[in-house]
Structures are given as C-alpha cells and as structure tokens.
Specification:
Blueprint: E1 3-5, E2 24-28, H1 33-39, E3 45-46, E4 54-57, E5 62-66, H2 74-85, E6 89-93, H3 97-105, H4 118-129, E7 133-140, E8 143-153, E9 156-164, H5 169-183, E10 188-192, H6 196-200, E11 204-206, H7 208-218
Parallel strand pairs: 1-2, 9-10
Antiparallel strand pairs: 2-4, 3-4, 5-10, 5-11, 6-7, 7-8, 8-9
Length: 246
C-alpha cells in the first residue's frame, strides 16, 4: 500500500518504497515544479501512464552512469569523431528544451503511450526557466536530430529521457553531456532504471542507500554554471571522448 500525497504533504521515507513494483513510493493527483524540487534531492522521480495518477518512484537498486565510466565502442568513437568535424551537425545546450521533451514523448516502436504528459512538460519547462533542467541537442542542417534532458541540482545530474531522429544521435548527445559533467566535477548521472541500452554504455546499478548517501553529499554543492555552454557550438567536446574505447 502506498500513500496519497496532498499539496504540502512530505514524501515518505524512500526505504518504505514497495519491493514490487520495485520502488513505487507514493501517488498524487498532479505534478508541478514544487513537487519535482521536493522529490529529486531525495532520489524520487515521477513515472506514470497518461491518464493515471502521478506515481512517484525510488527503486532499489538504482541505475547510474559514473561519468568516468562511459563506455565508447570503436564504432561509436568513429561516430563521435565524425560528428565533431561535421559542419552540418551542431551540438547545442538548451536551444529547444521543450522541443526535446516533446520529441522524447513521441510514440516509439513497441511502446503504446508516453509518461511525458502536457503537465510534465510544463513542470520541467518551469525548472528549465529556473536553470534547474537542461537539454543537450544535436542539430543537423537546422533540424533537431536528437537530444537528452534532465534535472541539474548541485553537482548531480538526473537524466530523464533521450531520443534519436538520426542514427546514434542520442549517444552523441550523451557523450557531450558526459564531457560537460566531467569538466564540472559531476561524477554521476542518475539513469533511474536498468536498460540494456544504458548498460551497453557503461551504466550500472548501485544500492538505494548508496545512491541516497551520494545525493546527500552533492545536491547541496554549488551548482554548475551552464551559461558558458549556451549559444556556442559544443562539437569540440566530442574530440576528448577517447577514454573507455573498447
């Protein structure tokens, strides 16, 4: 049994989350910026089917990507080097945050619906306006070809979703994001739940208590200054993506 959250109600302790389904903690009628800012420092995130109540999760174990463990295959390394040198492709930060969210929300093969509702888009776009959520984007000939977005608090990045409209576009965006976070001393990206795709890129699971302890250390640290990455082409970040090549 999980609790129903009313506005102003604190989240339950994450250790009270259900074992099945793994990590289900609470439910609420709505999601907005205030709920998100109360949830993320505790390692809690929303995920639910459209039309259902908002469900809040904190699974155990937790999938994370240590930024010094990004795994780059030889083929991906070639892709990154090609993208770095291609004048028709441009990596950008926060050019179209809402566009990235909407692309992530678009129907995908073998997935009947999306959890990225209009209410979710409004909530995360509100965080983006406050410099607390960010998107890394790949543009090809002026068209948004791929992207990833997430929440940035202190020295922690909480990855939410990514999409590709061109081959390997989301991997290119992830590699660029990792490089930014390495430069800024952010050691971990939260990936929430295990997928084969993330595991192939070096993400791995850690225990919820270890994850919570890490959050307690880093979310209150001085935030990343994302302003210096806006309005400039970020392709050169890919030239440094050599560590971890198989």
């Amino acid at each position: 049994m999980i609790g129903w959250l009313e506005p102003g109600t604190p989240f339950p302790d994450v250790e009270s989350a259900l074992e099945f389904p793994n990590g289900l903690l609470a439910a609420s009628e709505h999601v907005d910026e205030r709920w998100l800012l109360a949830a993320y420092p505790k390692g809690i995130f929303p995920w639910f089917a459209e039309g259902d109540p908002v469900l809040w999760w904190c699974p155990d174990p937790r999938m994370v990507l240590f930024t010094d463990e990004l795994r780059i295959s030889r083929s991906l390394g070639k892709t990154l080097r090609a993208a770095a040198a291609d004048p028709a492709r441009s990596l950008r930060l926060d050019e179209d945050f809402e566009g990235v969210m909407r692309a992530c929300a678009a129907p995908r093969k073998d997935e009947p619906g999306t959890w990225i509702s209009e209410e979710m888009i409004a909530a995360y776009a509100g965080l983006a306006r406050r410099d607390l959520a960010h998107s890394i984007e790949l543009w090809e000939d002026g068209r948004l070809a791929g992207g990833a977005y997430g929440v940035s608090l202190g020295r922690m990045f909480f990855g939410e979703s990514m999409f590709s409209a061109a081959r390997d576009a989301s991997k290119i965006c992830l590699a660029a994001l990792v490089q930014i976070l390495r430069h800024e001393g952010v050691p971990v990206i939260d990936c929430q739940q295990k997928t084969a795709h993330l595991a192939s890129l070096g993400a791995r699971e850690i225990g919820r208590r270890e994850f919570s302890a890490h959050l307690a250390r880093v979310v209150g640290q001085p935030p990343v200054d994302w302003r210096k990455y806006r309005g400039v082409r970020l392709n050169s970040l890919l030239e440094d993506c050599r560590k971890g090549v198989d």
